[in-house]
Amino acid sequence: MKKLILLALLTFFLISCATSLPSTEPSKEMVKNADTIILKVNQTANEAYRGFAQHLTDQGISIDNSDSELLLLKTSTITDAMIDYRINASIRSNNDSTMIYVSGVMVSDGVVDGLKVDNAGGVAIAGKDVWNNMNELATSYPNESVYYKRN
Fold first, then answer.
1. What is the pTM of this model?
2. With the C-alpha atoms ordered 107, 91, 32, 81, is the resulting torsion angle positive or negative?
3. Tens of pLDDT, residues 64-97
4. CA 25, CA 95: separation in Å to the nearest integer?
5. CATH number of 26-149: 3.40.1160.10, 3.30.460.10, 1.10.3720.10, 3.30.530.50?
6. DSSP sequence for 96-117
7. Bridge-partner residues for 89, per DSSP?
8. Where exactly are the structural domains of the chain?
9. Helix, strand, coil % (nearest 5) of the chain?
């Protein structure tokens, strides 16, 4: 009986891990497993690039790599809830608006391991805490609207 229960739990765990949700369009509501925060800002792309970089450094986060032509920012490793991750930000602009796309990637032994920081898991799970903290950091930047997207 114990083996059967163990097998059922293992099967449930593997199925839940293997299930991936499809991409979503940006939504003002938090989406399950959202992995991108999009800030609509009332600034030019260059102002948003400089302003968001300053916002991160004001919060004690170092910029590891930046590209002022492509308007990309990558932070140094941040340790939060005993998890190491980096924040990536890209700024995109068209005639109507400027958007800052913020995402995070997990880091293991100083190397990006490919796992995204996302809105998954229960409240007690450390990864969820990292998402909440990254979301709070991003949305504390002055913005007109906030959207969430799952890639």
1. 0.81
2. positive
3. 999 999 999 999 999 987 889 999 999 999 988 9
4. 20
5. 3.30.530.50
6. S-EEEEEEEEEEETTEEEEEEP
7. 73, 102
8. 26-149
9. 30, 35, 35
